[in-house]
Specification:
Elements lengths: L1 E3 L2 E4 L14 H40 L3 E6 L4 E4 L1 H7 L3 H4 L4 H5 L27 E9 L5 E12 L6 E9 L1
Antiparallel strand pairs: 1-2, 3-4, 3-7, 5-6, 6-7
């Protein structure tokens, strides 16, 4: 049997010709070891398939959102940029992926002071037990140099051990 834990994934049938010798104990042990490895491989393949499917679903939801959504990594590089964000900012996704977020949006407060390159950036602060989300309002700069008034909601993920930011998802409303 192909089993992982108590779950049965299938069976392996081994046939021999009538003239062949019977299977030995060593043959059975080898086949059992093979079956265990095959079951693990099948289970892992199913897990990978399920993970890829879930990733596609999440990406589809983010892509279809009416709000601009940008995701950034721990070094504040853009790793996600949905269609609404492209329309709002005028920046094509393929040109911004991998760039620092502060180069892409130039987010500033109402007094025209940079939020991105200051301690007010949610990725730069380390709240002790504080909320993982915050909303900031101000202006971003579009690809054609126009200022766009926005509200940006940052959802920052942090390491439990160190408090350092792993990344963030930023919802942008104009």
């Amino acid at each position: 049997p192909l089993q992982v834990g108590r779950r049965s994934l299938g069976l392996i049938y081994v046939m021999r010709s009538r003239s062949a010798a019977s299977f030995s104990g060593i043959d059975q042990s080898m086949l059992n070891a093979f079956a265990r490895q095959a079951a693990i491989a099948l289970d892992n393949a199913k897990l990978v398939h399920d993970l890829v499917d879930e990733k596609r679903k999440v990406e589809s939801m983010l892509e279809g959102s009416a709000e601009g959504i940008m995701s950034i990594d721990a070094r504040r590089r853009v790793v996600g940029f949905n269609a609404a964000m492209e329309r709002m900012s005028g920046h094509p996704r393929e040109q911004v992926l991998g760039l620092p977020c502060y180069q892409v949006l130039n987010f500033r407060d109402w007094g025209d002071r940079s939020i991105c390159n200051s301690t007010r950036c949610p990725m730069m602060t380390r709240p002790e037990g504080g909320p993982s989300t915050c909303e900031l309002q101000g202006k971003i700069q579009s690809a054609d140099g126009q200022d766009i008034e926005v509200a940006m909601v940052y959802s920052v993920t942090r390491s439990r051990a160190t408090g350092r930011a792993h990344g963030a998802v930023i919802n942008v409303r104009d």
